[in-house]
Amino acid sequence: MSIVVRDVREHELDSVLALNNAAGPSILPLDSARLRQFFNSADYFRVAERDGTLAGFLVGFGSRRGHDSSNFGWFAERHPDFMYIDRVVVASRRRGGGVGRTIYADVQGYAELRYPVLACEVFVEHDSDTARIFHGSFGFREVGQHVMPGTGIRASMLTKGMCSYAWVRDTYGDALPDEPWLTQPRPADEARLATGTR
């Protein structure tokens, strides 16, 4: 009954798309082209497996790479350097079983070595108490609200300071130790490097 978090594989994108679009009104729907764009450009795109089955995923973008989401833009106007969680989805049958906590611990471990702030949002219009409590238990706090253009959806904008970032930055700068768990690129990064695309 272990939970394993790992990089998404290209052949899993259809399953990730189905999981996203079955998540309900608290997650914006995606099409395959948009998901492919995430696969090619996200800093962090990982899935959680429980008992060998896809149980959830998280997509994140660092401020240095950029992202065309209005919520990302809201944070970019206020923070010079941050990691943004675009979406996290846990399969309905797996909610409450630790999948969300496990994948959040993983993205935090990724972010704290690279960015001083971890950012995300929770939609206000939907029943968001559970999501707010979940994020609050991880140390996220509301720093404002934003109405998403074209949707009218109001989002509670949340941030969390990465307490280890300053030490890592002061100690290592841009040169993290050559350890696979720190430096290994995602498959999409490897494909971009091989083709010379960004």
TrEMBL record:
Renumbered residue ranges of the record's region Disordered: 178-198
The N-acetyltransferase domain, residue ranges: 3-160
Gene3D superfamilies in alphabetical order: 3.40.630.30
Stated name of the protein: N-acetyltransferase domain-containing protein
Organism: Luteimonas terricola
